[in-house]
Amino acid sequence: MGKKVSALSYLYLLGMALVAIGFCCPMIKGLFGTSANGFDFIRNVKDGSFVAIGAILIFAGAVAGIVACFVPQLSGLKLIFALAVLAGAIVLIIGFTTNGGIYKAIGKQLLKRAMFGFYMVVAGIVLAICGATQK
Asked: Residue 15's closest CA among 54, 58, 71, 50?
């Protein structure tokens, strides 16, 4: 008979999938009616800004977390990948509030300008950390 898997063990996969999907969806409404997803933040990687570094951490951690669900050798690293996504989100928010120009204008009104992709990423981070910490 196969190993019994609880429903809580799927929280991690669901959370990481929400982060990856939310990253691709519009996250923040721009000042002139345009919206930006996570890949728009990565375009500034040549400047080495906090916003680009945070966006890369979020997406790379989510993809690595999804892969860890299907590769048994990586299952011990699930919490590290979830914490990488959380650290990327913190770095992204710090980058928004401290960088100059357009980022600072958006950072002051982050929750007013947040779109459904932002909320999907936040919900995914919470679900992934809850799923990674349960045994």
From this structure: 58
Q: Is the pLDDT of residue 18 over 60?
A: yes
Contact 66, 16 (CB under 8 A): yes
Average pLDDT value for residue range 42-48: 69
Q: How far is CA 16 from CA 63, 70, 74, 99, 106, in A?
A: 7, 13, 15, 28, 26
pLDDT at 76: 83
**Alpha carbon distance 6, 104 (integer Å):** 44
Q: Is the pLDDT of residue 80 over 80?
A: yes
One-letter amino acid of 93: I
Distance CA 107, CA 103 (A): 6
The phi and psi torsions of 45 (rounded to 5 degrees) equal -65, -25
Q: How far apart are CA 92 and CA 38, in angstroms?
A: 10
- State the residue for tokens 């890369």: 56
pLDDT of residue 66: 92
Q: In the numeric block, which tokens belong to residue 36?
A: 């930006």
Mean pLDDT over residues 53-74, rounded? 89
Query: In the 8-state DSSP scheme, what is residue 114?
Result: B
